[in-house]
Design brief:
The complex is a heterodimer of chains A (504) and B (328).
Chain A lengths: L14 E10 L2 E11 L4 E5 L6 H8 L10 E4 L2 E2 L5 H7 L1 E4 L11 H5 L1 H4 L9 H14 L15 H14 L4 E5 L7 H16 L3 E6 L3 H4 L4 E6 L2 E7 L5 H9 L17 E10 L3 E9 L3 E5 L6 H8 L7 E6 L2 E3 L4 H7 L1 E4 L3 H5 L6 H6 L7 E2 L2 E2 L1 H14 L16 H13 L5 E5 L7 H16 L3 E5 L3 H7 L2 E6 L2 E6 L6 H8 L2
Parallel strand pairs in A: 3-8, 3-9, 6-7, 7-8, 13-20, 13-21, 16-19, 19-20
Antiparallel strand pairs in A: 1-2, 1-4, 4-5, 9-10, 11-12, 11-14, 14-15, 17-18, 21-22
Chain B lengths: L1 H11 L4 H17 L6 H26 L7 H18 L7 H29 L3 H20 L4 E2 L6 H5 L1 E2 L2 E2 H19 L1 H11 L1 H6 L4 H27 L1 E2 L7 H11 L11 H20 L4 H29 L1
Antiparallel strand pairs in B: 1-4, 2-3
The chains are: A alpha/beta (504), B mainly alpha (328).
Chain lengths: 504, 328
Amino acid sequence: MDMTTAPGEDARPILSLRNINMTFGGVRALKNVSFEVMPGEVHCLAGENGSGKSTLIKVITGVYRPAAGAEIVFDGAAVSSMTPGIAQSLGIQVIWQDLALFPEMTVAENIAFQTLSGARPRFVRYPAIRKIAEDALARLGVTLDVDRPLKDFAIAQRQIVAIARALVGEARIVFMDEPTASLTQSETDHLLAIVHTLSASGVAVVFVSHRLAEVLEISSRLTVLRDGALVGVYPVEGMTQSRITELMTGRTFDQSVRAHDISRNPVVLSVQGLSRPGEFRDISFELRRGETLGITGLLGSGRTELALTLFGMRQPAAGTITLEGKAVRFASNRQAIAAGVAYLSEDRLALGLNQPQSIADNLVMASLNRILSGRLISPTKKRALVSRWIADLGVKIGQQEDAISTLSGGNQQRVAIAKWLATDPKVLILDSPTVGVDVGARAGIFEIVARLAEAGLAIILISDEVPEVYFNADRVLHMEKGRMAGWHDPRATTLKDIEAAVYA
Amino acid sequence: MNALATRFNAIFGADMAGPFAALAAVLIVFGLASPQFFTAATFGSVAFQLPELGILTLAMLLPILTGGLNLAITFTANMAGLTLAWVLQANGGADAGPGAFLLGSLLALGVGAASGLVMGLVIAFTRAHPILVSLSMMIFLRGLGEFLTRGGDISGFPGFIAPIGHGSLLGIPVPLLILIACVLACHVLLSRSKLGFSTYMIGSNIESARYSGINTRKVLVLVYMLSGAIAAVAGIIMLARFNSVRIGHGESYLLITVLACFLGGINPFGGFGRVLPVFVALVVLQLLSSGLNLLGANQHLATAVWGILLIVVMVLRWASAKFIKLTK
């Protein structure tokens, strides 16, 4: 292997894909996509959530099998059918956002994991494992105590462990899925330095991300996907952040700030000094009628934990919650729902909706008492309630009895919102409502949010995408490590300023 | 043909097609094979044998729908039967009055529900696996029953109890009437009540049900209590039919009830399935066994045929799912 090849005209790509098509249950996730990586280059694969980035990686690593006609060429040799095993033996490594490490095992065991696995029973030789781990870390210019369990380390260090593991697997291309999503600025800088080292040693690195500022600094080329199709491949030189956003979303940035003055509206929810050890501390705010309060912050900022506490699924250790002037203490979310608090979960697949069950059953799940006649559920009332909300929120469905999993992400989310609106809430907490929703359908979700706020509903909008809260909320609360880090008024600040504060 | 299928599905539901097809097949095959099959005697024997298995199957069905299982149903049934038997004995044995029977029956239902309550509480609060929890309850009840009865029978009950096991009302066997009442009650419970709705939701995703404000623990406890109480009904019928109670009665029914649920289209992992197809599936199983009996086949062979039937059903289901996918 030529370790010094620099990306150039005459170099042969280490990996090249052509005619990649992928369909899931009628939805075309990838449409005729092609993709190319040169040896040793730092490449950026950009696209919004749902644009097909993850699907493409799963095709490359053999997790998904693309439709007939696909061509995958690795280092000049065609790969007729990729499997995870082949991908690994070729040196294609992926570092997923969740890192896929073993928290209870030591750093050494995590790094040397692949040399440990195998069908034949063998004794584990710990000195050898430590050596492998220390060598891999040394290549990255990092020292860690390899005998300590991984759970002792912060997320940034765990990421380094994941990279070291990829190196042990003789990596030639490393994909990094949203590698900077949960890192601070200095941790990100450190990561970028490591990427530099990797690239210099001939390993190609592909960043998969929708937040590009820092990544752009060291990438040479950029591939943009939108709605499962290739938008184009561009040299990074001369690219601007706004041009990339334009390429990713397919529209010029004409979004305007929706924030308006709500300070004269009556207070619906008031939170004073709310704390839960290890999750969040001393949170105080007021939420007014018709207000959309945005809460943003990185992973681990305590946003979701705070929401679950307001929703009664966790109990605060200190502080008070006042709903419409009355102090409340919810023992369960049933009490919260009855009092008028609704919570749309960030995890629509596992918690927000009951995927195998029907659209109708999902929609009425939280408001069964409204469709009873006597002690029994009235099929007529149920049908009427479902029809009303389906029409009201513009959900596109076939039959009410179809499983909700047959709907697109955007339509599923509309049903999930309808489920909570049917409970007649006073406060609606939306936790990352656009996760897994197609780019085109997101605007529709936020139009619903705006309409609900206009009708007087008090809304808490949680998102780790700063632009979402910037454009759609009246005020933005920035949380960091469980504390309130600052308030921002979208009418008085720029998106850049808030992003700088959040990703600092 | 297609229009016919659509009409059928509209009236009975798509999940009835399989059980009805099996019913038709059994009737045709045995009708041709044995001239005595279509006689009152055949259907009489089916009508008297079906209820115990049928009611026990209902007791199994409810926990399965929540994604669980109740392996203690037969021993719960007999423990309830023993409760009734002791109350009768304490009140004069064969001379006991209807009051003693009523009291004993209520206590029997209470014992059944209590067995379910304990399992339900453990499952709901510790999240222990229902197989292990109900298996422990099953072993506990068997051991307790054998200890209390020293492994023997209790018999000698007043004559007025016999009709519950052997009598007929307007030409319909009383146990069959009790079964039909239980089937209808379970049908309404599952299709129309909040508890039934929650049972399905918990079965396919308990966490999403909890996030939607369903009291998942309460539902689990109630479902296991109901399961235990229904098993107790089966216990009372067995007492009346055999005129005796033994802790090991009907032990072989246990796994058959699981299979009957499966044959009736209940999702073995919970969340989906209805009572009526299960009822038809039970009739098929019983007709099959009675029909083979009529042909002079060995009783054990009949059991073997049940096993074959279930394997065939699994393969056919796979094949029809494949066919539907292809034609779409």
